[in-house]
Write a structure and sequence with these properties.
The chain is mostly helical. It has seven helices and no strands. The longest helix has 86 residues. It is rod-shaped, with a radius of gyration of 59 Å.
Length: 356
C-alpha cells in the first residue's frame, strides 16, 4: 500500500525536523556541560592535590635537605672551631635539632600518607638515618660542651673524627642527602606530571566549551536555515495551492468558469483539487446543457454530477418539462392547422355551392 504524503504528514515532518534539531542541540549541550563539569572537577582535584600535597611535599623535602646540610656544616664548626656555648652557630644548631628538624619531619610524616609506597619507603629510611645522625650530633656536643673541652686533645680528636670526611657523620649525612635528592627528583617528576595533567585538563575544558560554542552557533544557523526551508516548502506545497483553490472558488462565485485546472496531488489538497476540477467540469457541462436546452436541443446528453446533484436534476426536469410543453404546443398547432384547413375546405365547398 502506497504511503500518502498528506498535509498532516508534511507539517509533522517539518516540526519533526525542528524538534529533532532542538533535541540534538539539547542532548549535545547537556553531554558537553556534564563532560566539562567532570573535567573541571578532575582539574580541581588535581589543583587541590598540587596545592595541598605535592608542592608542599617537595618544599618540605627541600627544606629537610637544607636543614641536614646546614646542620652538618654547623656540627663541623662545633667540632673544629673552638667557641663558647652561646656562639650563634651553636645556638642555631641546637635550634635545628630541637625545633626545625622535628617540625619538618613531623610535617613530612603527616604528608607521606598521600605519597606512593616507594617514596614512603625512602622517607622512612631517611627518618631512621636522621635519628642516627642526631645521635652522632649529640655525641659531638657531649664531647665539646664547654670552652675548656676543646683543650682536651682526646675529646677534640674524637669529635673531629666523627665530623671529618668519610667519618660517621659525613657518611650518614651523605646517605640522607642522596635519598632526599632521589626523593626530591621523584616528587618533582610527579609534580610536573600533575601540572601537565592539569594543563591538559584545562585545555580539554577549553576545547569542550569552544566545541559547545561552535555547536550552538552552527546548530543555531542550521535551525534557522532549516526553519526557512521548511517554511518555504510549506508555503509552496500548502499555502500556494490553497491560494489557487481560493482564487478558482472566488471566480466561480462570480459566475466565471476557471480556464485552468488544479494539478492532482496525493494529499488533502489533491483531493480538493480533484473535487474542484470535477465541479468546474460539471459547471461547464451544465452551462453547455443549459445553452443547448435554450436552443431547443432537448436530446442533448447530460448526466448529473451525482444522485445528490440538485441543480443537475432540476435542469433535467426543466428540459423534460420544456420538451413536453413544446410537444403539447406542436400538437395544438397541428390541431389548429387541421381545423383551419377543414374550415378552409368548408368555405371552399360553400363557395362552390354559391357559384352553382
Amino acid at each position: 500500500m502506497k504511503l500518502r504524503f498528506t498535509i498532516g504528514r508534511r507539517i509533522g515532518l517539518g516540526f519533526g525536523v525542528v524538534i529533532f534539531f532542538i533535541v540534538l542541540i539539547f542532548t549535545l549541550t547537556v553531554r558537553n556541560v556534564v563532560s566539562g563539569l567532570e573535567i573541571f572537577e578532575e582539574s580541581k582535584q588535581l589543583n587541590e592535590r598540587i596545592t595541598r600535597i605535592e608542592t608542599p611535599s617537595v618544599n618540605l623535602v627541600i627544606e629537610l635537605s637544607n636543614n641536614i646540610q646546614e646542620s652538618k656544616a654547623l656540627i663541623t664548626k662545633w667540632a673544629t672551631e673552638q667557641s663558647r656555648e652561646d656562639n650563634p652557630d651553636k645556638m642555631r644548631l641546637i635550634s635545628l635539632m630541637g625545633t626545625d628538624l622535628p617540625r619538618v619531619t613531623k610535617d613530612i610524616d603527616n604528608m607521606k600518607d598521600y605519597w606512593p609506597k616507594e617514596e614512603v619507603v625512602i622517607i622512612d629510611t631517611v627518618f631512621s638515618s636522621i635519628n642516627t645522625l642526631l645521635d652522632l650530633y649529640t655525641q659531638v656536643q657531649g664531647l665539646l660542651t664547654s670552652f675548656e673541652d676543646y683543650a682536651d686533645a682526646e675529646k677534640a680528636l674524637m669529635a673531629r673524627f666523627l665530623v671529618e670526611t668519610d667519618g660517621d657523620i659525613d657518611k650518614e649525612a651523605k646517605m640522607i642527602l642522596v635519598n632526599l635528592n632521589r626523593l626530591k627528583r621523584m616528587q618533582e617528576l610527579r609534580l610536573k606530571n600533575s601540572r601537565d595533567a592539569q594543563v591538559a585538563s584545562s585545555d580539554k575544558t577549553m576545547k569542550s566549551y569552544q566545541f559547545l560554542i561552535y555547536l550552538l552557533i552552527f546548530t543555531g544557523i542550521a535551525l534557522v536555515v532549516g526553519s526557512l526551508l521548511i517554511a518555504t516548502f510549506t508555503s509552496r506545497s500548502i499555502v500556494k495551492p490553497v491560494g489557487k483553490l481560493k482564487g478558482m472558488i472566488q471566480q466561480m462565485g462570480r459566475g466565471i468558469i476557471p480556464k485552468e485546472q488544479m494539478k492532482s496531488r496525493d494529499d488533502e489538497i489533491g483531493e480538493m483539487a480533484v473535487a474542484l476540477n470535477n465541479l468546474v467540469t460539471g459547471y461547464r457541462r451544465t452551462t453547455d446543457f443549459s445553452r443547448q436546452v435554450g436552443m431547443g436541443n432537448f436530446n442533448y446528453n447530460y448526466e448529473p454530477l451525482s444522485d445528490e446533484d440538485v441543480l443537475g436534476h432540476a435542469l433535467l426536469k426543466m428540459r423534460d418539462d420544456l420538451a413536453e410543453n413544446e410537444r403539447i404546443l406542436e400538437q395544438k398547432v397541428i390541431e389548429r392547422t387541421e381545423e383551419v384547413v377543414r374550415q378552409k375546405e368548408e368555405i371552399e365547398k360553400q363557395r362552390q355551392k354559391l357559384e352553382e
